[in-house]
Write a structure and sequence with these properties.
Structural class: mainly alpha
Keywords: Membrane, Nucleus, Transcription, Transcription regulation, Transmembrane, Transmembrane helix
Strand content: under 5%
Radius of gyration: 37 Å
Protein name: Mediator of RNA polymerase II transcription subunit 23
Number of helices: 62
Family: Belongs to the Mediator complex subunit 23 family.
InterPro entries: Mediator_Med23
Oligomer: single chain
Distance between the termini: 65 Å
Pfam family, one: Med23
Helix content: 55-70%
Length: 1244
């Protein structure tokens, strides 16, 4: 029974296929009568259709307008519409290949595709990849550049060409749709018949040309085959250009782009076996070849068009198109290559070779060829590209992988290129993440199970030589009496990291450095800097193991000792800490080496041993009796000796630091009025934090011990740490970012899995991350991972009642993290389920994505594949719609999907109106001055969730401009008992109700200014008088309603309130400077209530460290500026920036804020506002230089603006540019300056 059904379906499908093919043959003018053994047309087909299909060969084809009507009559022969669509696409692919050389037939096929697409019988996203795959399969069966026709051919293609059958040419491409195509169209003719017959003779499918003729095709004339394939590609490009008018999927754009580039890159390849004498002759491309090239270029230009951004221009830059060996003599081809080079030169000129701070796309790096688009991963997608390893990185050819790295010979051009890049990296200190991705582990340290790093391209030999070069360079600077101690410290940090990572063979380094010094650089070694450098790493495990197991340990030891340079006549006036350290360091290192190998006693210097005794005696004298080292009043000699001690006896030095930080004792924290717990909380009294100058000279080994012990005291101890202890901990992490950095959530939970559940630990950790270590995490590229860790905390507590302080702090940290990430990121590591973000963070993520895409573009084409899924995931839990003024600045990739969202504010107001009576009655019982306190508990236990979201709105209505008319104590208690998510919902709802009431009152004749004044006073009552609501969330809720004409006016009124100005003044005066690491005075802890207010603290007693209400609005101010600019209020934006300039200097990422706002509104900002935005940067030193050289301030700010937009901002870079401007002051603005200003757009 089943077999008969399958046979019936097969016959039905064959009949339908024949009908579709015959209909196309009819309209293509290729109709032929069916042979007696062919299947007849089904009876269901109309007589009119049969008459057309069997019309005489000499008849003219029907008019194109009739085609769609005739085609729709075929629907009855198929089980469903999808079956007809699939078959139609496969038939069209065959006819495209058959008819590509026949202009009228090609034009009809284009018409048919447009018509069928308009009614859904052709889907471009499935048709185009199949068409391109089929063409590639045909070309691949004969080699690149050799045309192959698929399906049944027509004599109109060429008078002397035979085309293989579809089934035979499709064997190598299983993904192609051609298995459905057996026996379609006009059958193939022999070469003899084609050359003589003016019309077609129908042939059965069994008579089609087989695979044996494929071998004969290779003997055809090259020019004829090139002409044929040119016609095919030209028609394919026309089809694609038509398709691009529709809204295609990103994966389709990527597929098209890949094929177009492949065609152009391989256009000039010749067949193997062609006579060399022929290939040597000059050959000019024929007209068909140039025509398809021009069509192909049209497709590419349309794909990379900046307005649509179907494919980022980065893809074209990385395609290698400009490296063609055989460039055709064609103006259009030359234009696109010129544009690629122009953009690459622009980037090479105005970007650093290693732009590690902003993580900009690296245009000179190729990606893996094995990438697929079907299942795009989440986070690892950003690391699929090879690292920027060439010099300069945007112009040179990249080196690929481990095999090539080991195959590069010393002295070759590639070796020098790699060394130049490494030297540059050692000078500019990219993040450890960059080093891990590009450096290979030395073979002697590599574990067997350790997989190779695909992007690692620098061998240990290259790295060793580059480190030696950097050492020699620093020695030369030192000998020239240039103050470069800070450079030595930075280099020591990197050197420690590289050695600990196993990227440098220690024995190889010692041998090569000793050989370098002995061969010609003896005069360079005048100080003990090399000995000090080796002393930093002597305690690393792999170094100790290497020294212990080295068969030539005596010889190695002698080489290490040979770097010692004793100062026979020390300058008694020079008692700087550095000089003392360098004078004693050889003794410290000698004692350490002696502990490994006691047999080297004969090589030791007695003076070094004597100095070791001096260190010991000095320390005994300092700690004599009960005395403790006084780090507050330490002199230079004592500081230098303590540095030496850190290399010799790390444990006593560590104990001395911990004793100092604990020296002031502890005190008990008093209970607050709302606290009912009897638990005692003890807190360390404040002392002086250790200065950066002291910490900088300590050995990295001691710093590691200190960090570990400080983490025990801060996060695992029973006593609340002092701010001085926390500041010292932070400063240690900042001093050696390569050696000491650790991801805190992972590190702490590994040491104690339940540590975050300990009271106060999560608060302290989030404060440290938000107000101290955020730039450090961004430098390491770990801000995205940190965002995911913080999101887990948010998702766990957003529904818990009363967890407002921890939740709002985590949310504020997430705001800063989202705005700091300037590459593509997922809100969840997997694109499954709704986002765990809050409503506020969801809205901020959309803004961040818009800024990223518009100012930096999309670095990977794969990102476009799941952008829509990402937007759907974000917006699945949010009902928010953005105003038209905001959307007009969004990039099209985000603006178009968001434009389709329905504004549900009207529904929200209707829901409020329906619940208003009930809510007002409840609020009357809750918030009247004489309300029963017990009713609060009843309300919290029995109220409906849909009513709880209207508590603030009901209080607002009851207040009616008279704050004293409601019971604020009850309202505050209710809001504190709510979950943070419920408070957020109340704020957003209250803002909508407030704005709606203003509109109603205006209709009743009230004055707008009076209504606004009443609204601002009422909100100030909520925020400042009784501290019932968080200010940052309320401001964000108001600016998100900027389509209401009064929302932003209320925001400005709140920003102008004296209560907020007083808070900001107190915050700035207590912080002194954003360079917190330079403040060596005992920190002053702000009272909890003054810092955070009643709503956030409530029953919490844990003291604040760096948190403050004023600091919470720092990430909000930039968003307010964005909204004001979008609403054409640049003067107000300038005034807000001026008013909050003292607060914005504490922004953790000031340059990012300035650069993003200038790039996002490029071409839309007045010059006055641009200058005000630039003043957010710390450019006071550069301004001084501008005054000295008598530089006009208009020119000065133009230069700053230009440097910022090209992502090259630093004081040094500005000074260099300003010097050039002063030297060429008369010509700079009229030539190069204005040229760069007009041609460079942000994001390129």
């Amino acid at each position: 029974m089943e077999q008969s059904q399958r046979a019936s379906r097969h016959v039905q499908l064959h009949c339908g296929r024949s009908a579709v093919v015959d209909l196309f043959n009819l309209y293509l003018g290729r109709n032929s009568r069916q042979k007696s053994d062919d299947l007849p047309l089904p009876r269901e087909a109309s007589n009119k259709m049969q008459k057309r299909v069997t019309a005489p060969i000499g008849d003219l084809p029907p008019r194109n307008e009739q085609f769609l009507l005739d085609f729709e009559q075929l629907q009855v022969q198929f089980q469903d519409r999808e079956q007809l669509r699939t078959l139609t696409e496969s038939v069209l692919i065959a006819f495209v290949i058959q008819c590509s050389a026949h202009v009228p037939q090609s034009e009809f096929l284009l018409f048919a595709m447009r018509s069928l697409c308009s009614v859904g019988y052709v889907k471009w996203d499935s048709f185009l990849p199949s068409l391109l795959s089929t063409i590639s399969s045909a070309e691949g069966s004969f080699g690149s550049g050799c045309p192959t026709m698929i399906g049944n051919s027509s004599a109109v293609i060429s008078p002397s060409i035979t085309v293989p059958n579809a089934s035979s040419s499709h064997i190598s491409n299983p993904a192609s749709p051609l298995p459905l195509m057996h026996g379609i169209g006009s059958p193939t003719q022999s070469i003899t018949d084609q050359s003589s017959a003016p019309t077609l003779s129908p042939v059965k499918p069994s008579e089609l040309v087989g695979t044996n003729q494929l071998l004969n095709m290779t003997k055809l004339n090259l020019s004829v085959r090139s002409t044929t394939i040119s016609y095919l590609r030209q028609l394919a490009c026309k089809v694609i250009l038509n398709a691009l008018e529709s809204n295609l999927k990103p994966v389709t754009h990527a597929e098209i782009f890949s094929h177009m580039i492949n065609w152009l890159v391989n256009w000039g390849q010749r067949n193997s076996g062609i006579d060399e004498s022929e290939t040597a002759k000059p050959w000019k491309p024929e007209r068909p070849l140039l025509e398809w090239m021009h069509s192909c270029l049209d497709v590419i230009w349309k794909l990379v068009d900046e307005d649509k951004c179907l494919v980022p221009f980065y893809e074209l830059i990385r395609s290698g198109l400009q490296y063609l060996d055989n460039i055709p003599d064609d103006e259009a081809f030359f234009s696109i290559i010129l544009e690629i080079h122009r953009r690459r030169d622009m980037v090479a000129t105005h970007m650093q070779m290693l732009d590690q701070h902003l993580h900009c796309p690296s245009f000179g790096t190729h990606r893996f060829l094995s990438q697929t688009y079907a299942n795009p991963p989440g986070e690892p997608i950003a690391n699929l590209r090879y690292s920027p390893i060439t010099y300069p990185s945007v112009l040179g050819e990249p080196l690929h992988g481990e095999e090539l790295a080991f195959s590069i010979h010393k002295g070759s051009l590639d070796w020098e290129r790699a060394l130049r890049c490494l030297r540059h990296a050692l000078h500019t200190t990219p993040s450890p993440d960059w080093w891990r991705r590009v450096l290979l582990v030395a073979p002697c340290y590599r574990q067997q199970a350790q997989p190779p790093t695909p992007g690692a391209v620098f061998s240990p030999e290259m790295n060793c030589e580059a480190v030696i070069d950097r050492t020699i360079d620093l020695l030369k600077l030192t000998n020239s009496e240039v103050q470069c101690w800070q450079d030595w410290l930075v280099f020591a940090d990197i050197f420690f990291f590289l050695m600990k990572s196993g990227c440098i063979d220690f024995l190889d380094f010692v041998n090569k450095l000793a050989s370098r010094v002995a061969s010609g650089d003896q005069h360079i070694l005048r100080s003990n800097h090399v000995t000090w450098l080796l002393a930093q790493i002597i305690r690393i495990e792999i170094v100790m193991n290497t020294l212990s197991s080295d068969p030539k340990k005596v010889e190695t030891t002698r080489k290490i000792i040979s770097f010692h340079k004793e100062d026979k006549n020390p300058d008694s006036s020079n008692v700087s800490p550095q000089s003392i350290l360098l004078d004693f360091i050889s003794s410290s290192q000698t004692l350490r080496i002696w502990s490994f190998n006691s047999s080297i006693r004969e090589y030791l210097n007695s003076d070094q041993l004597q100095k070791g005794k001096q260190i010991d005696e000095w320390w005994k004298q300092v700690t004599k009796g009960e005395r403790m080292m006084d780090f507050m009043n330490i002199d230079d000699r004592s500081m230098g000796m303590f540095w030496v001690l850190s290399y010799t006896m790390a444990q006593p030095a560590c104990e001395a630091v911990m004793n100092w930080l604990n020296s002031s004792g502890v005190t008990e924290i008093l209970q607050g009025p709302n606290v009912q717990s009897n638990d005692r909380m003890m807190m360390m009294r404040e002392t002086y934090p250790l200065s950066m100058s002291l910490l900088s000279g300590l050995s990295i080994n001691l710093c590691l011990k200190l960090v570990y012990q400080l983490e025990d005291a801060i996060f695992l101890g029973q006593v609340i740490p002092s701010i001085a202890m926390v500041e010292t901990y932070v400063r240690l992490l900042l001093i050696a970012p390569h050696s000491l950095f650790r991801p805190h959530f992972t590190t702490l939970t590994q040491r104690s899995p339940s540590i975050l559940s300990k009271p106060g630990v999560s608060l302290l950790l989030l404060e440290i991350l938000n107000y101290r270590l955020l730039p450090l995490y961004r430098y390491h590229g770990k801000n995205k991972a940190l965002m995911y860790d913080v999101t887990k905390i948010i998702s766990m507590i957003k529904g818990k009642r009363g967890e407002h302080r921890l939740f709002r702090l985590a949310e504020n940290l997430c705001m800063n993290l989202i705005l700091s990430i300037r590459d593509f990121f997922l809100v969840k590591k997997e694109l499954k389920g709704p986002t765990e973000f809050t409503e506020t963070l969801n809205r901020m993520t959309i803004i961040s994505l818009a800024i990223t895409i518009k100012t930096r573009g999309i670095a990977e084409v794969e990102h476009m594949l799941y952008l829509q899924q990402l937007l759907d995931q974000i917006m699945s839990t949010s009902q928010h719609t953005w105003s038209e003024k905001t959307l007009r600045y969004f990039p099209p990739l985000i603006r178009i999907p968001l434009n389709q969202r329905m504004d549900k504010r009207g529904e929200a107001i209707q829901a409020w109106q329906q619940a208003e009576t009930t809510v007002i009655n409840q609020c009357n019982q809750l918030l009247s001055p004489s309300a029963d306190p017990n009713y609060v508990l009843t309300y919290l236990s029995h109220s409906f969730p849909q009513h709880r979201q209207y508590v603030c709105a009901g209080a607002w209505v009851l207040m009616n401009g008279l704050p004293e008319s409601i019971n604020s104590a009850h309202l505050g208690r209710i809001l504190r008992e709510f979950s943070p998510e419920e408070v957020t919902s109340n704020i957003y709802t209250m803002v909508d109700v407030l704005l709606h009431h203003i509109q109603l009152e205006l209709q009743r004749g009230h004055v707008a200014q009076e209504l606004l004044s009443k609204a601002i006073s009422g909100l100030a009552f909520f925020i400042w008088t009784h501290e019932l609501l968080p200010l940052d969330i309320l401001l964000l809720a108001l600016i998100d309603r900027d389509d209401d004409p009064y929302a932003l006016r209320i925001v400005i009124g709140l920003l102008d309130r004296p209560e907020l100005q007083q808070r900001i003044k107190m915050f700035c005066s207590s912080r002194i400077s954003p360079e917190h690491w330079l403040n060596n005075q005992p920190p002053k802890r702000v009272e909890l209530q003054k810092a955070l207010g009643n709503h956030l603290l409530w029953k919490d007693r844990y003291p604040p460290f760096f948190d403050d209400i004023a600091a919470r609005i720092i990430p909000v101010i930039p968003l307010i500026i964005y909204r004001l600019i979008e609403n054409d209020a640049p003067d107000i934006a300038e005034r807000v920036l001026a008013l909050y300039s003292s607060l914005l200097i504490f922004h953790p990422l000031r340059f990012t804020f300035v650069r993003d706002i200038l790039a996002y509104f490029y071409g839309h900002l007045p010059s006055k506002l641009i200058v005000r935005i630039l003043k957010v940067l710390d450019i006071s030193k550069v301004i001084t230089i501008a005054l000295v050289v008598d530089l006009n301030f208009d020119i000065f700010y133009f230069v700053v603006y230009f440097v910022v937009l090209t992502r090259h901002y630093s004081s040094d870079s500005l000074i260099r540019v300003l010097s050039s401007v002063c030297f060429f002051k008369s010509t700079y603005l009229s030539t190069a300056g204005l040229l760069c200003y007009s041609s460079i757009r942000p994001g390129e």
